[in-house]
Amino acid sequence: MPRLVLLGKQGAGKGTQAGRLADHFGVVHLSTGEIFRAQASLGTAFGLEAKRYMDSGDLVPDEIVVGVIDECLAPGGPLEDGFVLDGFPRTLYQAQELDRVLDGRPLDLAINLDVPREIVLDRLAGRRVCDNCQRVYHVNLPPSNDWICDTCGGPVVQRDDDTEEAIDRRLELYEQETVPIIEYYRAKGMLAEVDGVGEGDKVFDRLVNAVNEHASANDSV
Ligand code: ADP
Predict the structure, then answer these.
(1) Of ligand 1's atoms, which has the minimum distance to the CA of residue 34?
(2) pLDDT at residue 221 is higher than 60
(3) Among the four 44, 98, 209, 219, which has the fewest Cβ within 10 Å?
(4) Residue 87 CA, closest ligand 1 atom number
């Protein structure tokens, strides 16, 4: 069962594609952003603390994030039988901590889903998300019925951190904190680059091919 990390700018399509990849390979999709948003809407102390950082586009401190991942990745935990990580790791420190926690069960592949800045800016500014099932829409491609989700009937809204200021801050932090991770995985021979521009189904096929090609080259998965 593959152990994958999906990297990419905000708005690259990581969330959607990570979910599809996880279904395809029969493993768990884990999004740290989703965990934080769910906890924030439940109003837990942990969620409200995370929300303070998220709403301004800042990163949640490493200690908090690593604590969450540590529990999920512990032997016998929910990620024991393979996973697609989405939104983690996001700093070099988190990448090193991930290696530590995975001790003896290394990642198979980190995939950089590459989309140019102009495209993600447009996607993020127009992005609307179902508050219930997280399905992603765009103002130019809304649900068929008055911002009610086509899939689950939930309300389709703008994310609190999809404001212009928070988007700028998130993209700036991506360059500073997350881009170094791409080099970290490249140096380990564990990186695949996938073009994230184009129709969702085509991007998905490219991702599946990248995983399968890497697996046959390494005779694993
Ligand atoms: P995006 O990639 O569009 O910013 P996510 O849902 O992945 O969306 O993350 C939303 C927010 O959650 C981030 O801006 C950050 O505040 C917080 N977050 C998620 N994952 C991490 C992480 N690994 N480290 C620090 N903060 C995180």
Answers:
(1) 6
(2) no
(3) 219
(4) 7
The answer to whether 10 touches 170, Cβ cutoff 8 Å, is yes
Determine the atom of ligand 1 nearest the C-alpha atom of 166: 14
Report how far residue 121's alpha carbon sits from residue 56's, in angstroms, rounded to the nearest whole number.
17
H helix count then E strand count, the chain: 9, 8
- Look up residue 216 and give its DSSP letter: H
Active-site residue among 9, 20, 37, 90?
A: 90
Model pLDDT, residue 219: 72
Q: Is 170 close to ligand 1, i.e. is its CB under 6 Å away?
A: yes
Query: Which amino acid residue places its CA nearest to atom 1 of ligand 1?
Result: 10
Ligand 1 centroid to residue 167 C-alpha, Å: 11
Q: Can you read off the two tokens belonging to residue 89?
A: 């790791």
Q: Is the pLDDT of residue 213 over 90?
A: yes
Residue 170 among the catalytic residues: yes
Q: How many CB atoms lie within 10 A of CB 121?
A: 17
Maximum separation of any 2 CA atoms in the chain, in Å: 50
Phi, psi of 145 (to 5 degrees): -125, 100
In whole angstroms, give the CA distance from residue 24 to residue 40. Answer: 29
**Distance from C-alpha of 67 to C-alpha of 71, rounded to nearest angstrom:** 7
- pTM check: above 0.85: yes
| Helix, coil or strand: residue 198 | coil
